[in-house]
Design a protein that fits this description.
Helices cover 30% and strands 33% of the residues. It has seven helices and 17 strands. Helix 1 packs parallel to helix 4 and helix 2 packs antiparallel against helix 3. The chain is globular.
Length: 392
């Protein structure tokens, strides 16, 4: 589909959703820090949004607008964090030639389109955080930090930094990008769960069983009904985990996420992944994760955890239907992490070390929350290797 046609389809729905979120009224408008600075940022964000709405996005103009927007946002974030003076703007460094990973059967245009959607998402999120739009405050700030108005300032600044990175990626000329396909090679791990969960470390209160040739994991429903299982084995380098996912839950809040490169921070152990609140996982475990079948939210997210809960990408839930089988692949190659569901590339995020060092190794995890019930088949991990791409 041509880019103009894609935007023509997506933008009306996005604008309707923005209006609904902005007028829901649960959170106060603004950050409560500096009215003049916030108004200056708001004016720049309006211009950024207008620029992003164009059928042919002027990336040069967006780069020019992002410079003052990032400066205003960083000043506000520094004030929220009681710094004596604003921190320096952390420039996003991209290599001279970006390794352009094409997982599965994806094309360069498909990956660029996902980056464009992420660009729009981050600019829209910055506006929503400044305006107190419910969806953005809840998803970008998280619980319980969203209760404090000023806590929106740092994720707002981070959203604009991500937008800056994406403008940089999308602005690259063909000779500054090295596209290549990747394929499965050696089998690193395999589990059909016929002999239980001996290859996994289990945390939380769950019931597990082997039913209809599938492993079923169901949360019991204690006061904090979250549970997580991690592979005992760690994986490093470039790899992809593939499995059949069969969600059963229909509850409003229940959901599942799948993590890669999971490792404890500091003196923690993997047990911190389940605690009195999800914040123990968000700040106690480094990792990337993909969430799906998130109750009735209709969204599937990509997050970085460790330095807190950081939004990387968001889109329609790729596994929304209870009882249906989905073929899921999550993986990484260099700085790229990706999600494929039923052969379709859903997410592709490029890690430019904007939330700390690029993660290169760790455990693979499955997390259920709020009473999630799901089954799994044929969990396998393969090494990923590069193969020459025939790209014009």
């Amino acid at each position: 589909m041509e880019r103009g046609a894609i935007y023509a389809v997506l933008l009306p729905f996005l604008l309707i959703a923005m209006c609904a979120w902005a007028h829901s009224g649960e959170f106060p408008e603004g950050l409560g820090l500096d009215l003049d600075l916030e108004n200056a940022l708001r004016n720049t964000l309006v211009r950024l949004s207008e620029s992003a709405d164009q059928e042919e996005v002027d990336l040069g103009k967006m780069a020019e607008l992002l410079a003052p927007a990032r400066k205003h946002a960083e000043h506000l974030a520094s004030r929220a964090e009681s710094r004596a003076k604003p921190a320096e703007i952390d420039r996003v460094e991209l290599p001279a030639v970006v390794a352009f990973v094409l997982p599965g059967e994806s094309s360069p245009d498909e990956v660029r389109e996902l980056w464009r959607q992420q660009l729009w998402m981050n600019i829209t999120a910055a506006q929503g955080l400044l305006d107190g739009a419910d969806h953005f405050v809840r998803e970008w700030v998280g619980w319980p930090l969203h209760r404090e108005q000023a806590n929106r300032a740092r994720p707002l600044a981070e959203a604009l930094r991500e937008a800056d990175k994406l403008v940089g990626l999308l602005s690259r000329s063909p000779d500054q990008m090295r596209p290549f396909q990747v394929k499965r090679a050696d089998l690193l791990f395999s589990d059909d769960f016929a002999e239980g969960t001996g290859q996994w470390l289990m945390f939380g209160d769950t019931v597990t069983s082997h039913e209809d040739d599938a492993f079923r994991m169901k949360d019991r429903r204690p006061r904090h009904p979250d549970a997580m299982m991690w592979t005992r084995k760690t994986f490093e380098g470039n790899f992809v985990a593939s499995f059949t996912f069969i969600p059963h839950s229909r509850a409003d809040r229940a959901g599942a996420l799948f993590a890669i490169c999971g490792r404890p921070r500091g003196d923690n152990t993997l047990a911190v992944s389940v605690g009195p609140s999800m914040d123990t996982y968000n700040r106690g475990i480094d990792g990337y994760h993909f969430s799906m079948h998130r109750g009735t939210t209709g969204k599937g997210n990509v997050r970085r955890v460790g330095p807190g809960l950081k939004m990387l990408a968001s889109g329609p839930d790729p596994c929304p239907t209870p009882g249906r089988s989905y073929e899921v692949s999550i993986g990484k190659f260099g700085p790229a992490i990706f999600l494929i569901v039923d052969g379709k590339l859903i997410h592709h995020w490029y890690d430019a070390a904007t939330f700390g060092e690029v993660l290169t190794s760790g455990h693979i995890g499955i997390r259920h929350w709020a009473g999630m019930d799901a089954s799994y088949r044929n969990f396998k991990v393969h090494r990923l290797v590069e193969e020459p791409a025939e790209v014009e």
